[in-house]
Specification:
2 copies of one chain form a homodimer.
Chain A (H helix, E strand, L loop, with lengths): L6 H9 L4 E4 L1 H7 L7 H12 L4 H16 L4 H14 L3 E4 L22 H11 L32 E5 L9 H5 L5 E6 L14 E2 L3 H4 L4 E6 L9 H5 L13 E5 L4 H13 L13 H4 L18 H11 L3 E6 L2 H5 L18 E5 L4 H25 L1 H4 L1 H9 L5 H22 L5 H13 L7 E7 H7 L1 H8 L6 E6 L34 H6 L5 E5 L5 H13 L4 E6 L12 H10 L6 E3 L2 H4 L5 E3 L8 H5 L3 H9 L1 H27 L23
Parallel strand pairs in A: 8-9, 8-10, 10-11, 11-13, 12-13
Antiparallel strand pairs in A: 1-2, 3-7, 4-6, 5-6, 12-14, 14-15
Helix pairs in contact in A: 2-5, 3-4, 3-5, 4-5, 12-22, 14-18, 14-20, 16-17, 17-18, 26-27
């Protein structure tokens, strides 16, 4: 222990006569059946050492308050905590302090390796080492921009156990890659030659997908063990069974420490293998889609977070052209937890441009992105037309008529714009007259807007249903081409679990301590009343492909799109490891609906609303009482809980009936020319 | 003319050598067929006199811009304006200025009569006479409160013509009283004895209603001729025909000047007759209900305003216990156009307490009223319990168990509280111990909260659909007992006619100059998705009794109530005189729906939604093209107008289909104990 401490810390301890104690709190908690929850253990240690109360009295008080705090959650949880209390002191050890500093003790080290870019190492690294006060103002970007892709340099090594891949059992479905909240599980297919210099422990298997099998490609799933939080969701969703060892799957948890070094090497090697060509991937298959590189990696979100898989998915699909307005809330914190950010970029340097705005104006903030991007694109288009003969008519026409309907189109437009920029460089040194030269200069500054951008407005239910709803509604009515992602945890997760309008009836939350008496606000239905908004309600754990389909449709729709994504949360009082499976039961009980409302279908003579699920068959009681937020009310106020439960079941029944009607009704077709987008101002498009 | 001018004005004119011209612009406009629109006439006079352009050129330019400005509205409107231009100069006369001030000329007079209360005469009167700079700060209320009932002292005499009642033709239905936007038409029934000292020209007739006929009561309709704006809506809605003169009804327009003095005397006499007992009125009959005294009179709203009749109605029904939060917009301007306000009080001094708040927080502002009133009522209840033996157990029990379900109940509670306050006065001089004395003092300050208050949150569509919608939605979800009145003019009326989310598809407005391309936001449907909000959509002109019923139900519902009231507006480009009749066609075409959604019906096993109209039978085209906001698009962009018209018809059809489903579906019944109000915090009631 002593040898681990830096020189400066040793010096303080010796000179200030500080007593130092250590405890393996995780071991105590684990043995008591409490998993990684060490708060009770650490509380005992504090009172044992701080002498604010006689030790016996302190322990008695702790036990009393355990009953008070956890009583509603059940006797088993109380007993676990009592057991942890009793075991804690046996594991508390005093460290013997030598008289002098260890001559081998080092300085407090910058946690960023020397291989990192200078700004990350010298500025962000210093902040992490708590030496931020030594950074000169001149080292900081004066325009407020910050580099992305920085969280990956901050190896946190927080997981006691990490998933380990079994290449022989794996069916290569990609589900573990999809659901991983921290983007630490990755898959790749590649030529066998890429294995030539692989480390000895690097695993691979022949690719099973027919597209890849026929060219004898290899397949690997690699875990970033140092970035994993150990939530175990990947193991829960793995559908592959190990026939010889029935308790094991194709991915299994194992202690991190023994394999840390080896997996660091494997991870680096994995990253060095080229990504498959994005344009060849079949995005309707998870195994294919999950080969797309995520541009959101290693966030500081809770282990098992239900929100981050959706953000990661969006960055896989559209990250190289995304512009993101992120409302305050969990996602703004784990998305920008200074000094690092998980938002990152690909090898070409393309990645999401991200900024956080307030709870109360984020939708408007994102709409502003769209308005300014459209205006700059319009200006660039005018300049291309005006300079067409100098640029070359073929190139100009190619740029101006590009549809950019899919990724291959966008790739080609990028190539054209690269040629354009080269040509503009030549023109700026030519003998064009002054007014044309001015146009060349202006076009150089806006040429990038000729390539399609994907505008995303992101936040939680506290933002979307409550504080920012006024602006959200205005954006919904705007008709502009923006994509709104609401990660609905049904509670203010980040500020301590206050009820929001998204909180379901009967759930206990702050400000709803007797169980919320009114039903959950139906944001999707309210958005559908506009008629020209694409609306999808998804739950990744219930139907993986449905989420992907909704994201693709939403982004492609040339109007406002709203995706409401069920996001489980530690605030629900659930087993986070099985949270994705729980989402499935949620849908089967009708508590969460899967649907897509596509306005363009009206123009095709179809009903715009598609219900993407069967009729609910499970009683809501069953799924509700798997969550402590509901269960605790049944213990503390059984009569109220019973009444609310019945109402909650009625809510589900009535709502399902309504949605069935909406999905079945015959609509009249507008004008035969398809559905009007209803944009107040005409969209500017580069075509 | 010269004799009319005050001494100070004559002095300025003479000493500054000012030229003075007069024109009877109303006569010129009327002769040109333009009714009361004098802007063109006055513009001609300005250019004729100001010499900024040669007169001929100025006239030519005016005519050119008349074509440009009004061309879209049709050739007939252009021709009317041209005719007015040509006639204007013939009617412009120069006033001969004498060399000296007329010896009989008076001072600028305070427009408020001496009979008015001192504050109104000396402070508000000075402001009206533009002598506000002479008012000392000490004359103004230091807490910001202002007396109500002040607009009635400001006789504006703006109407060229006013309605005159024909007592022989009248069927005594009360419709003219109901629709009058300025509360200048009143009805009363009374004993014949009350006529003893009536002026010679005071009219009356035997009461026709059976309830009143059997006791030989007399009936009068009286017009406040000096406060009328001359809109003529009363004449349009009058159902009684004069059989001998088919062009006349039971109320007819006639020049105001000849009858001004006589009607002033009649009005004052009318006010001196006692109001009938409120508790004997049958509120489901307009003729009865309109005997209720309005506590909103003589506002500065436009002639024919579609909003004010709703406000007036609310004050008739609940005015003596109303607390009003009024959003910015037309209603905040005509509701508080300093120095006077039309909000007033009855003879007992009871009337609405009113304040204006911002567009962006008015719903929250009103919710705050409810929260604080409930808290004070709760405190008062605790004090009554605690002091019961001193107050007297019978009185205390009476106060604490009062239901206050209707007006008679509330009247009785007021009586009890009056006795309580008297008793508290006695107790404060008794030998109670110090802590009990403190309670007596506290109860004196909150005793009035033991009587039920009616909280109203009022505004237009710019507030409710747009800028204040975030807060409105939060209040809708709160479950608290507040009443929200949205006066929906479908456009930002007060700031110049910008499109709001309430603007219907195809209407031309600022920011929607090509016709609004997206459908009107369905605020009522969005509110109904909560399930526990009372929602009514009304149009007074389409069905008078329906509006009254909705107001009564909304106020009685112990949760959030939302009334969306169609309000015609000069911004629609309609004939304001027939605006109430136009509302009927609006409903018959399905452009506006009449319905009531009553959550309590669920507990009775009924569908909460009732459609209070027949299936739409008129094409929307017919009603739309009676409004210039739609018609002008058909002229300027006929193809776009045609497409939008078709979509607008589809909007109506689809919406009607949806509402029919909602009104017909079978709902499951909650818990057999009636519907949960879904209040986050339990309502405090005094029982």
């Amino acid at each position: 222990m002593w040898q681990q401490l830096p020189r400066l810390v040793q010096d303080h301890i010796i000179n200030k006569n500080i007593n130092v104690y250590v405890i393996n709190a995780y071991e105590v908690a684990r043995n008591a059946g409490m998993g990684g929850r060490i708060n009770t253990v650490m509380q005992v240690c504090f009172f044992a050492l701080a002498n604010v109360l006689p030790r016996e009295e302190a322990i008695a008080q702790i036990k009393k308050y355990i009953r008070k705090t956890y009583g509603k959650k059940g006797e088993d949880i109380v007993q676990m905590n009592i057991k942890a209390v009793d075991a804690a002191l046996d594991h508390l050890h005093q460290v013997t302090i030598p008289n002098a500093i260890d001559e081998n003790a080092g300085d407090i080290h910058n946690p960023i390796p020397d291989t990192a870019p200078a700004f990350i190492r010298d500025v962000l690294g210093k902040m992490m080492a708590r030496q931020g006060e030594d950074i000169p103002v001149s080292a900081l970007p004066c325009d407020g921009t910050y580099p992305s892709g920085t969280a990956k340099w901050e190896k946190r090594n927080v997981a006691q156990e990490v998933p380990v891949w079994d290449e022989d059992v794996c069916v290569q479905c990609g589900k573990c890659v999809l659901v991983c909240p921290h983007a630490v599980i990755r898959s790749k297919v590649y030529e066998e030659a890429a294995l030539t210099n692989a480390p000895a422990s690097f695993k691979s298997a022949p690719a099973k997908d027919l597209d890849w099998k026929k060219t004898n490609l290899k397949f690997t799933i690699q875990v970033a063990a140092e970035d994993c939080t150990g939530c175990g969701i990947c193991v829960d969703v793995c559908p592959a069974k190990n026939k010889s060892q029935p308790k094991l799957k194709a991915i299994n948890m194992a202690p991190q420490l023994p394999i840390r070094e080896q997996e660091r090497e494997n991870w680096d090697y994995f990253l060095s293998i080229a990504n498959p060509d994005r344009n060849t991937l079949k995005l309707n298959k998870i195994s294919h889609q999950q080969m797309q590189e995520p541009l959101f990696e290693f966030s500081g979100a809770c282990a098992g977070c239900g929100e981050t898989p959706y953000i990661k998915l969006a960055t896989q699909l559209f990250g190289d052209r995304m512009v993101v307005a992120n409302a305050t809330g969990c996602s703004s914190i784990y998305g920008g937890n200074l000094p690092t950010t998980p938002w990152t970029h690909n090898q070409e340097g393309r990645g999401p441009a991200w900024s956080n705005s307030l709870f109360e104006d984020n939708a408007e903030f994102g709409l502003g992105f769209r308005v300014s991007i459209d205006k700059q694109a319009e200006f660039a288009t005018e300049l291309v037309k005006s300079l067409a003969s100098d640029i070359g008519e073929t190139l100009a026409t190619g740029i101006l008529t590009a549809q950019q309907k899919d990724e291959a189109d966008i790739f080609e437009q990028r190539e054209r714009v690269a040629i354009l920029k080269h040509r503009l460089g030549e023109l700026s040194n030519s003998n064009l007259d002054e007014s044309m030269q001015a146009k060349v200069t202006m076009l150089q500054s806006v040429a990038d807007y000729l390539v399609k951008k994907s505008v995303w407005i992101i936040g939680g239910d506290g933002w979307a249903y409550d504080i920012g709803y006024g602006g959200l509604d205005h954006v919904l009515a705007s008709g502009r081409n923006v994509n709104i992602l609401v990660m609905d945890t049904e509670v203010y997760s980040n500020t301590g679990g206050q009820a929001s309008k998204a909180t379901p009836r009967a759930a206990v939350a702050k400000f709803a301590s007797g169980g919320k008496p009114s039903p959950k606000k139906d944001l999707g239905l309210m958005a559908m009343t506009y008629g020209n908004v694409y609306v999808a309600s998804v739950a990744m754990g219930a139907k993986n492909e449905h989420s992907i389909k909704a994201f693709l449709e939403a982004e492609a729709y040339e109007g406002v799109s709203l995706i409401i994504a069920y996001s489980h949360c530690i605030a629900h009082g659930i087993n986070m490891t099985t949270a994705m499976s729980h989402q499935q039961e949620l849908v089967e009980s009708g508590r969460w609906l899967l649907y897509r409302y596509h306005p363009d279908l009206v123009g095709e003579g179809k009903n715009p609303l598609q219900l993407d699920m069967r009729s609910p068959k499970l009683p809501v009681e069953r799924t509700m009482y798997q969550e402590n937020r509901f269960k605790m009310l049944a213990r503390s106020k059984p009569d109220a809980a019973k009444k609310l439960l019945k109402q909650a079941q009625n809510d589900v029944n009535t709502r399902w009936q309504m949605y069935q009607y909406l999905a079945a009704r015959q609509l009249e077709i507008g004008n035969g020319n398809g559905h009007s987008k209803g944009n107040i101002e005409k969209e500017t498009t580069v075509n």
